[in-house]
Description:
The protein has two domains: 2-142 and 307-337, Medium-chain alcohol dehydrogenases, catalytic domain (Quinone Oxidoreductase, Chain A, domain 1), CATH 3.90.180.10; 146-284, NAD(P)-binding Rossmann-like Domain (Rossmann fold). The chain is α/β, with parallel strands linked by helices. The protein contains eleven helices and 18 strands. The chain binds zinc ion (2 copies).
Amino acid sequence: MKTGRLSGEAEVTDRPIPTPGAGEVLLRVAACGICGSDLHAFRSDPGFEWIQPPVTLGHEFSGTVEAVGQDVHLVSPGDRVVPIAIQGCGSCDFCRSGVTQLCPQRELVGLSCDGGMAEYAVVPEWQLVPVPSELDLGLAALCEPLAVAVHAVFTRACIKPGQKVVVSGPGPIGVLCGMLADLGGAEVLLTGVERDSAWRLPAAERVGLETANLSEAPLEAYLRDGFGGNAPDFWIESSGSVRALGSALESVRPGGKIIVVGLYAEQMSFYPTSAVRRELDVVFSYSCSYADYRTALSLLSSGAVDPGPLISRYPLRDARKAFEVTGGGRVVKAMLVP
Ligand SMILES: [Zn+2]
Ligand SMILES: [Zn+2]
């Protein structure tokens, strides 16, 4: 089978189809998205030295159960599923209370063990979430990033109708957070910079979001036009830029809230007194839990969220090209199809 594999260098190679062990399932992969973390691994960026090649990349995938190992009781061949990207130990307090993404012994599918950029993948049965029958598997592969946005916007932020929300960073998580805040009745402004102007901001507009190119005009100008000059109630920071996080701390209204979902390569300094005097809430949001996957799948299958216009599909054999366009910001979400 073909696999998108990191082994010193990222390449598409031929490997034997794996055999599921006890409690494991062989999935025929339908589609696998390329995530920012895959890109960091692909480029061997700082902070990703812990990844030990060779490993098959990919944690945003969907598939059909092809075969099951011994003692598998939860699924059977033909079932359509998505795997949860983070595996916890299953026995610590975090895992038992349903926040496996905080487990100290967590493993990330497609980074610490083989993932879904392949024709077939082996996954433990308890890690699979059933896909509703009416949902296309190609869209279901977007479940993981949507679940990350669900965790940020619905589980961690609790945005109310009519509230004014700025989302910084028009990558997949930012656009999906914007779509969910919009679905929740908020007024949303998605910000980006010049390099986002050709592809990512127009894609966000195609799914109905108001956008702002901060290289063209300052944020205040957009707030004047979009929010009637009011300061935002909420700010969702998904760009991973400490400058954007600094703007969030300066710009939200007194009593406002900032949800931080980006990952940062730099340290930042900020003046806490101003945040104290305005009683700001800053909430961090990391990955997602099983419950967020269920919510994401029901939003996709009901059509409440339609991220179709955000997806660009590539055959798995063109994985390198798909990584390059992702790295260049020329797509919102590249999806590899085996
Ligand atoms: Zn991801
Ligand atoms: Zn655990």
